[in-house]
Amino acid sequence: MAVFGKRGASKPVARPAAVQRERPVTAKAADDHSPPPRFRSGAGLSWSKPLTIKNINITLVPDDPGVFALMGGPEEADIVYLGGTKDLRSEFQIELASQAALVHPHAQYFSFAIAPTPNEQAEKEIAIFRRRFGRIPRLNSGF
Known about the structure:
The structure is a single chain. By secondary structure, the chain is of the alpha+beta class. The chain is 24% helix and 15% strand. Strands 1-4-2-3 form a 4-stranded antiparallel β-sheet, sandwiched between helices. The protein is globular and about 30 Å long.
């Protein structure tokens, strides 16, 4: 009698050695306060390491034109605002004051990249974010 759906002898499938040795990924500890990793940009920008808004030295932010990201958490998907400015340091001071005035601040981290055309670059970054996550950052206008 013929058995349908099977070809050849039924031999066990050998798994590659690399697959057999995989270890489950462990979650980070809740008390791990290390800064989040840099996020990737498809536009070729060199983003700074995210800086904690609470205790930051203002001199770490240059006064050059560029784009910036406000991040609500440690992951790239936690970006709440992407924008461009002619002076990153003054924009950071404005955001610092506005976040301090909120009872529940939206952002915990600030990251930036120097760009010669900041507003155009910010639009590109928002489009990249939309393609990657299927939405725009929470605080960017929808229209």
